Amino acid sequence: MNYDYIIVGAGSAGCILANRLSASGQYSVLLLEAGKADDSFWFKIPVGFTKTYYNETYNWMYYSEPEKELDNRSLYCPRGKVQGGSGSINAMIYVRGQEKDYDDWAQAGNNGWSYRDVLPYFRKLETHPLGNTEYHGANGPIGISPMKDAVHPICHVFLKGCEQAGYKRTDDFNGAQFEGAGIYDVNTRNGQRSSSSFEYLHPALNRKNLTVEREVLVTQVLFDTNRRATGVVVKQNGSARHFTAKREVILSAGAVDTPKLLQLSGVGDSTLLAEHRIPLVRHLPAVGRNLQDHLCVSFYYRANVKTLNDEMRPLLGKLKLGLQYLLTRKGPLAMSVNQSGGFFRGSENEAVPNLQLYFNPLSYRIPKSNKASLEPEPYSGFLLCFNPCRPTSRGSIEIASNRAEDPAKIRINALTTQKDIDEAIQGCELVRKIMSTAALDEITVEEISPGPQVSDREGFLQYFREQSGSIYHLCGSCAMGPDDLTSVVDERLRVHGMSGLRIVDASIFPNITSGNINAPTMMVAEKGAEMILEDALTVAGEQAKESAKVFAAAH
Ligand SMILES: Cc1cc2nc3c(=O)[nH]c(=O)nc-3n(C[C@H](O)[C@H](O)[C@H](O)COP(=O)(O)OP(=O)(O)OC[C@H]3O[C@@H](n4cnc5c(N)ncnc54)[C@H](O)[C@@H]3O)c2cc1C
Fold it and tell me: Which InterPro entries does its entry note (predicted)?
């Protein structure tokens, strides 16, 4: 079967592309997704992400290779395997990042990607209650809800503590002032998850020129002898099928599976491909390199006031909250558990904020067994968690075999630079500084983990090594840049040295952004879709010129 565009992966980015590329009715679009439809109630209700966290039907449930600097632990790396991708199973915190993140993208040779360049795409994708302003949009598909008026009261104690510790307050991390303590926005609409699947793909499903195939594993991209992508091979119900693309194949399979698919298709480091006996199409060594992630660690506290643990843990409490949600679409089940936090400088020498904090008005431990569920702890507790914003360690994605069914090897290589080690310690010091303020001291009985015996740089670092985990922001594994030795796509997201092949997802980030990366990924998709459509017009223009020349020569 033949389509103008084939999009691989109906995740945060893929759903946006499917809508935008099919909107004019001019192009036929095929969207291929390995997972099922997002028709369960758990995808709608914000708290539903606790149900999909360890659900192998909807989650690829990857693990990293053992991380040497993290006590040889394998970190859990959940990824959405469902329409909407990781955007269907995430915690919905909506943060764009800071200006410098994108200015650095542009400075690395990517014209058109500075903060001022990408701001229009952030505005385009959202409907924000502030309406059309310099920073916000009023007509975009994704609903943004500030949690400001609804957070648990102890979040305000946290904000007071930050003020007492000398930190600024911000009312909008996505507005004029990124830095400071505040309450997060979430991508919800009327108390329901506002994912790119619900907001972009669902409304487009009836278009005649859009085909969505689910439960289809794309196993290979096909190329002609000119290295032009001509289509894909998929596995569906145990048998192989081919689809061909007249214009482009666009990879949106995410930061783990996009580089894996390129490597399986013969585009990647020639040594790695030879090791797995994959015929080389193009030596592109940066495929799978430059992987980045945010690693966080939590500090746990027992409170002398009621926290969300007291409401969410007992059966009666659960029933009450469930009823509140069903009747009003409000309450804790309509929000994220990460309610307040902010962006801070870990030292006076930092030019911009380098640490992100989350203050959660409840406490829970990530269960070791994937058979257990995420449950609040059995006491009035809360947690304060941090992650460095822009780690400098770089990891990799590499195929483990030449079979598409085998998960790729994920190496985050955490804490392999001195800067990252310093920031892990800075973060612990920042948590302790805020927790020692009068406001927080007043509601705290004790620090449960790591506990007061951990109080120096060595102890903090060891705690981070033993307890930190991924906060699920894998990106950068097919970075954008001008040089084909160090990057994979150019500034129009075209794979270097290939034609008819683009990447539009979190893998193109040259550097990770300071904050949660779903909003930046959706921005990449909005901008990517516009570039694809512009380039289609250019191609059409060139073809028309060519035909006119042929016609003129013949007459
Ligand atoms: C548990 C969790 C919590 C998170 N919380 C937040 C948060 O609160 N805020 C935030 O901003 N970010 C959060 N994130 C991160 C964010 O959701 C992701 O970074 C973002 O969704 C990535 O988008 P993507 O389009 O690059 O990839 P994805 O959304 O992961 O999409 C990739 C899609 O491709 C499909 N696919 C993969 N391989 C194949 C194949 N071979 N054939 C066919 N289909 C394939 C996958 O099934 C998936 O649907 C979280 C992530 C997780 C997992």
Answer: FAD/NAD-bd_sf, GMC_OxRdtase, GMC_OxRdtase_N, GMC_OxRtase_C
Q: How many other CB atoms sit within 10 Å of the CB of residue 44?
A: 17
8 Å CB contact between 222 and 230: yes
CA angle 112, 118, 120 (to 5 degrees): 120
Q: Which of 482, 492, 555 is nearest to 109 (CA)?
A: 482
If phi > 0 it is left, if psi is from -120 to 50 it is alpha, else beta; for residue 510 that is alpha
Torsion, Cα 503 506 510 515, to 10 degrees, reads 160
Query: Nearest-5° angle of CA 335, CA 162, CA 374?
Result: 35
Measured distance between the N- and C-terminal CA atoms of the chain, rounded to whole angstroms: 37
Q: Which residues pair with 303 in a beta bridge?
A: 444
Q: Which of 128, 136, 473, 496 is catalytic?
A: 473
Q: How far is it, in rounded angstroms, from Cα 28 to Cα 26?
A: 7
| DSSP summary character for residue 279 | P
Q: Which value, in Å, is the radius of gyration of the alpha carbons in the chain?
A: 23
| Angle at alpha carbon of residue 515, lines to 511 and 518, rounded to 5° | 85
Q: How many CA atoms lie less than 13 Å away from 351 in the CB half-sphere?
A: 5
β-bridge mates for residue 145, sequence order: 186
Distance CA 64, CA 74 (A): 5
Distance between CA 374 and CA 48 in Å, rounded?
11
- Alpha-carbon distance of 547 to 136, in angstroms, equals 44
Ordered DSSP codes for 48-105 = GHHHHTT-TTTB--EEPPPBGGGTTBPPEE--B-BTTGGGGTS--B-----HHHHHHH
Distance 443 CA to ligand 1 centre (A): 37
Residues in the chain: 555
Whether 473 sits among the annotated catalytic residues: the reply is yes
- Per-10-residue mean pLDDT, the chain, length 555: 97 98 98 97 92 94 98 97 98 98 98 98 98 97 94 97 98 98 97 97 98 98 98 96 98 98 98 98 98 98 96 92 92 91 96 97 86 84 98 98 98 98 98 98 98 97 98 98 98 98 98 98 98 90 72 71
What region does 515 belong to: left with phi over 0, alpha with psi -120 to 50, or beta?
Answer: left
Backbone dihedral region for residue 198 (phi beyond 0: left; psi -120 to 50: alpha; all else: beta): alpha
449 and 467 in contact (C-beta within 8 Å)?
yes
Closest CA to 529 of 88, 92, 31, 23: 23
CA-based diameter of the chain, in Å?
91
What is the DSSP code string of 523-535? HHHHHHHHHHHHH
Question: What are the residue ranges of helices labelled H in 338-387?
Answer: none
